[in-house]
Amino acid sequence: MSEDPAITLQDRFAAAKNDHASLWKSLWDDGTYIPWDRGQSSPSLVDLLNDYPSLITPSSPSQQLTAFVPGCGRGYDVLLFASHGLKALGLDLSESAIIAAKQNAEKSGLNSQLYGFVDGDFFGDAWRSEGERFDVVYDYTFLCALDPSQGLREKWADRMRELVRDGGVLICLEFPLYKGLEMPGPPWPLREEIYKGLLEERGFVREMYVKPRRYLESGEGSDMVSVWRLK
Ligand SMILES: C[S@@+](CC[C@H](N)C(=O)[O-])C[C@H]1O[C@@H](n2cnc3c(N)ncnc32)[C@H](O)[C@@H]1O
């Protein structure tokens, strides 16, 4: 049975009470109502990696940087990192999304050594090699997909602290910054101050804060890119 597009994402999540994991999975399984899926990498990330190559340049030719994209959906941003030569891992709760991501990856013609996809929970450890940490972690439409009333923002920040290697970076495409703070999600509204409050007290130092040259209409022109280095 296909989903009724007249029912908003916010109404669906309100009706799901706290079982958001099951709802994400059923939306992906059905596949007819996935309004967040853009069918491509975020243009803001494309431009960031082209404009600031030092973010993804290893310190020696023998080093291979690693990237991680939680809540990767169909994996477009994972493949973008792989296309720059990073070894990139995408994670999503949804097995259906991960199967689609693997199919996209096969079609991309990229070296399969450069990407991996796994289904699992960002907050759990089943998907992760013990102690595994990453040089670059990218968050777009993931923090805003976590219900703040469930204390998940603090858990997200604690988890990022564990997953970014010392000296590595967390890149956040901050979204949605335009949305009233009282509005329901997903996407749950965010602000520059919220990212700062979560990350600065965990040892992340913001080393870039830029307005993307290109962005998706969904951000209503307010999206920002922040780059946080773990000191
Ligand atoms: C708004 S969607 C964004 C997907 C993708 N980043 C994109 O832009 O197309 C949020 C994604 O996070 C995934 N997700 C939500 N909670 C998660 C969790 N705890 N662990 C892993 N993935 C999760 C959902 O399944 C969904 O694919």
Characterization of the model:
30% of the residues lie in helices and 20% in strands. By secondary structure, the chain is of the alpha/beta class. It has a single domain, classed as Rossmann fold (3-Layer(aba) Sandwich). The protein has a seven-stranded mixed beta sheet, sandwiched between helices. Strand 4, helix 6 and strand 5 form a beta-alpha-beta unit. 36% of the residues are buried. The mean pLDDT is 95. Bound molecules: S-adenosylmethionine. S-adenosylmethionine binds next to strand 2. This is S-adenosyl-L-methionine-dependent methyltransferase. InterPro entries: SAM-dependent_MTases_sf, TPMT. One of its GO terms (molecular function) is S-adenosylmethionine-dependent methyltransferase activity.
